[in-house]
Amino acid sequence: MPRTDCQSDFSLYGQKTKLLLTAAGVQFQRVEQPMVLPRPDLEALGITYRRIPLLAVGKDVYCDSALIIDTIVETLGKIPSGPHDNAYHAWGENTFQEALGLVPPQALSPEFVKDRETIFPILKRSDLKSLRPSTLAGFQARLRQVENDFLSNSNGPFIGGDKLSVADVHVVFSIRWVLNDLGVSNEVGCSKQDFPKVWKMIESLPAAKPEVLSVEQAQKTIKESSYSAQGPVEVQKDDPLGIAKGTQVSVESFE
Description:
Blueprint: E1 3-7, H1 12-23, E2 29-32, H2 40-43, E3 54-57, E4 60-62, H3 65-76, H4 85-99, H5 110-116, H6 132-150, H7 166-181, H8 196-203, E5 211-212, H9 215-224
Parallel strand pairs: 1-2, 2-5
Antiparallel strand pairs: 1-3, 3-4
């Protein structure tokens, strides 16, 4: 069953999906997508969901990042997981949200801000540049937590030792993006000398080398594949909406 990842290289969650697929030993193919709407390649598949990445497993297309992660971990590959993964997930998400004040203003084109402003309102603040010093201090505190807490007792580059786990992916995806893609590694106090364990963790990550498909190849692969996902077989007990089994529903976003 072919797995196709539709994303942009700068997409933080695209990087996370790609890292998780690689760590789980899942072979996949990749299709590059524009950073902002419109995305006619996806529209040609009948997909109007506005965000990337998307993951296609055969003809089944997964849009939500959390569902993509669950699908990879529980169905597609093998990667160590643990009872604290949800806590590490929340830590990584919060780190990313806090670090948005470090996005260089010159990287924010009007088109990009318009596309993301309902999701990340901070990007349209006129005083974004003034937030950088305090945001950087907060990010350094996050790095100290990884260095001195998460990796303090590890006998390898990762939280659990030598083997990359789901917890590591949840933690490292945001700090790697901030250090490398936002250029924060060049800031005083964020170097390899300051945080050797953090940098060892980043440098030990497996390199993702998926086959790159053309748009036409991806559309053909997805359309000619078969469905594999099993939908829910029961309605949640005491569902507050009172939806009965077999009811056809639609899902909309209020963003």
